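Quick one: structure for this chain?
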Amino acid sequence: MTVHYLGYGRTANRALMAELCPDAKPLGGHYLPNHRLIFRGHADIRFDRDFVLPVVAWKITNECLSALDELADYPKVYDRRKINDDWWIYEMNGNKDELAAPSNQDYNRIMEAYEDFDLHDYHLRVALRDAGFGLKAI
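Got it. Here's what it folds into:
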């Protein structure tokens, strides 16, 4: 059985998804309205009417969803919910005001995904600025 998934952080990255979920099929880059990218050590999202969230849409298997659950440390660190009754997306638990920069590796994976899927990097740069500019060592 296949399900749909929206990746906005490192799971937007084609190479990481090929490794983690070999059966995942990218459906292209899109923008999710009323959400914004933030960094809390890892990528997260926040509701915001003034922003759009760059995402990569994926068609994945249930096995892939289980692998994503493990990567996200679901439900302890990230929870997941459905958008429009069809698309799974992960969201970090906890205080959305506690921002922290991502690792260089995570940031570079996201930047690569934006390039691969023709997503504008403005939202990525704003999220990094808001998290305090500096990248954490890998």
